[in-house]
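Final report, section 2: Outcomes. Of the targets proposed, Catalase is the one most frequently requested by collaborating groups, and we therefore present its record in full.
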Amino acid sequence: MSRKKDELNQRDTIDNTKEAPLTTNQGLPVSEDEFSLKAGERGPTLMEDFHFREKMTHFDHERIPERIVHARGFAVHGEFEVYESLEKYTRAKFLTEPGKKTPVFTRFSTVAGNRGSMDIPRDVRGFATKFYTEEGNFDLVANNMPVFFMQDAIKFPDFVHAVKPEPHNEIPQAASAHNTFWDWVSENTESAHMVMWLMSDRAIPRSLAMMEGFGVHTFRLVNAEGKSHFVKFHWKPKFGTHQVLWDEAQMINGKNIDFNRMELWQNIEKGIPAEFELGLQVIPEEDEFEMEFDILDPTKLWPEEEVPVQIVGKMTLNQNVDNYFAETEQVAFHPGHVVPGIDFSNDPLLQGRLFSYTDTQLIRLGGPNFHQIPINRPVCPFANNQRDGYNQMYIHKGETSYSNNTINNNQPEPLAPEKGGYEHYSEKVEGRKVRARSDSFKDHFSQAKLFLNSMSETERQHIYDALSFELGKCDMEIRENAIYKLLNKIDRDMTEYVADRVGVEAPSEVEESTYSKRSPALSMENTEFSLETRTVGVMLTPDVAEQTLKETKSKLEEQGLQVTFISDKIYKIGDITLDETFDTVHCVLFDSMILLKGEEKPPAPVIENLEIAYKHKKAIGYGIDSGDIFDMLSFTKDDKGVADIEKDLDGFLEAVKGHRVWDR
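The predicted structure is given below as tokens.
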């Protein structure tokens, strides 16, 4: 079943790498593409110049509406392999045949910014995967956070309007640090849990391959016998879950707006795939009301200590797209794209998304035939009585386009469930029509406190500082509302810290949640640590020997590090050409820094890079005759995470592997 992406495209690829004549869209060979047709060399352009008109008309219509949210995205092809049969939970074929491989296409994205915004704002990340299964496409439309801002989809437009740039001046771009966002979350306190996630390090990932993914909603798995289990989907990254610092993120966005997407692209080009394991949290239907919260509430997570994550398969993303627009921009995800054995719960946010996603694709992709775009097509045959419409790509043969019919022997014909036809779970539903919410959804603060309780001291401080930064960008009235109506209901220590930082008098009445449980799985300290894909910027002076460079590069690359040599200009030392200069890169673009200094005095940017790397708690190495450099620095060679790579390479590598030297 596993297919390369080229097989998905079939005859729909135009390969401009091959020799071919330049033609119009109708196939007419063109003899001249430099000049428009004119009445004389200095005369007006003629209307009969069909080549110019076609070329310019197409150019004028190249842009399509960007996504309202998740506009800035980056996508990769790959495959998913299931480890063992999950037939006790579902009849989905891609999950019930051990070792079965299914082609996938995964798009990562930010939420709030436009298509041209930066890679590392403080924001939620989309993590959407299209499985091209033999039973049709299944879309797992996930985020890198397991909860969301609201409980009912009817409030989604309000939230997006609040987090987007303010309408009177279109400021700020891709940021939540402004009045309307904090006004909305203060007045809609069901967002309290999600706000804690957004203010945490989860909102500024080090890499697209270093963040978790969560299906957010409660779905159903239904097996061949009709037995139902509630399920939440998880993606667990092979490289662990890691972040950048907020100060560092702001500098990265200034140095390389494409930092996350470029890293993923380059690693895949080097043959280093991004790998994620799929995990399931499963609750039998009969246990729906056994938790202390409503499992259908999208602002709540299921603590992994209470409902363990079962690892069931692995996704390997290993092939870049051929064309960003055709694939990444035109791919259309939808939580309603399911296969037999996967169904929905009554989560009111999920229910609303089942309408919204189709609706938005209709205008963004030009009509109801967006499923015919190559990146969206299933790999299995499909047939129905739908006809015509904008961008119809198929020639439908036959006299009928309706059901039931005798002319065509009632083809295409519905398929019985036992033969593979989709069947909705037969859930018993009853009740009066009301605009209301269950009382079981009304606890807004316990899991916000659970998240905060579960953080390490460092992570907790980062949340405090993020809140101080965000509210410090707001008007005083908005700051007060956020502190009184939101933060004071979660945690008093956090409230007093932030209030003091932003010039607000802390509330006299203590109203913090008394929830005391912890979930260690929520802390990013309890993740995988690896040297794979980690980067090191090696700064050097011109008098460093070629052999030293070769030995340093070899030792580091043997451990999985990616080495970049940096100096004040591009030149060669023996056979080695230096990669970058201080004008083109900066320490914020690397996981660690090394200085190799001979007797020559290092250029001024060396000091700046070392000081900032130290400030951002990165591993720092030095070698050759560089001990005297510390006379020019604010830290010493005895500080934690600072190592002589000739004498203590293992110490340096251990610091890099740990991601940051938090206790420096």
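The chain has three domains: 73-175+201-376, 449-522, 535-657.
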